[in-house]
Design brief:
Order of helices and strands: HEHHHEEEE
Helix content: 25-40%
Number of strands: 5
Radius of gyration: 18 Å
Strand content: 15-25%
Number of helices: 4
Shape: globular
Length: 163
């Protein structure tokens, strides 16, 4: 019994430490730049209005960047539509509409992606609330604002698949 109590206590301490560290770079949700929020809203609209995953993938390509696209940025990487995008497409119905953001974490990426499509800059990890909070925790989408790229100048969605 004593071992169970100590292991439970240790588990809660580790979880608390991880949570505290992950919130270190959080910013107020109302400080999310307008152009980043616009890209997020466009992503959710694509998920909600596409007839099927193929249509969704075609529309999403304009918003996708970093490791979600091939080196030439003219197509999604092979498994993105089948797995990450499909998960979000199937589960977006469980998330608040209109959008409710519960948390924003700001970090800096020195590089996301490969070859010509690689981008670096400010990365916003944005947690979206479920429509019914009893159905689970919010899920994140990451959007990167590119800096210093020759031609990619607008924010790009760089991490999906958590819905």
């Amino acid at each position: 019994m004593k071992k169970l109590f100590l292991s439970t206590l240790l588990s809660f301490a580790v979880i608390g430490l991880i949570s505290a560290q992950s919130r270190e770079n959080d910013i107020p949700t109302d400080k999310l730049p307008k152009e980043v929020k616009t890209v997020l809203e466009q992503y959710l609209t694509i998920l909600r209005t596409s007839a099927d995953i193929d249509q969704c993938a075609g529309k999403f390509l304009d918003l996708a960047g970093g490791g979600l696209v091939n080196e030439n940025a003219k197509s999604l990487r092979q498994d993105v539509a089948r797995f990450s995008l499909n998960k979000d497409f199937s589960n977006v119905k469980f998330y608040a509409n209109p959008l409710k953001i519960s948390r924003v974490n700001l970090s800096y990426s020195n590089g996301d992606g490969f070859g010509w499509s690689a981008i670096k800059g400010k990365k916003y990890k944005i947690w979206i609330e479920k429509a019914d909070k009893s159905n689970g925790m919010p899920a994140p989408v990451s959007i990167l604002v590119p800096e210093g790229h020759e031609s990619i100048k607008v924010p790009k969605v760089v991490n999906i698949g958590s819905f």
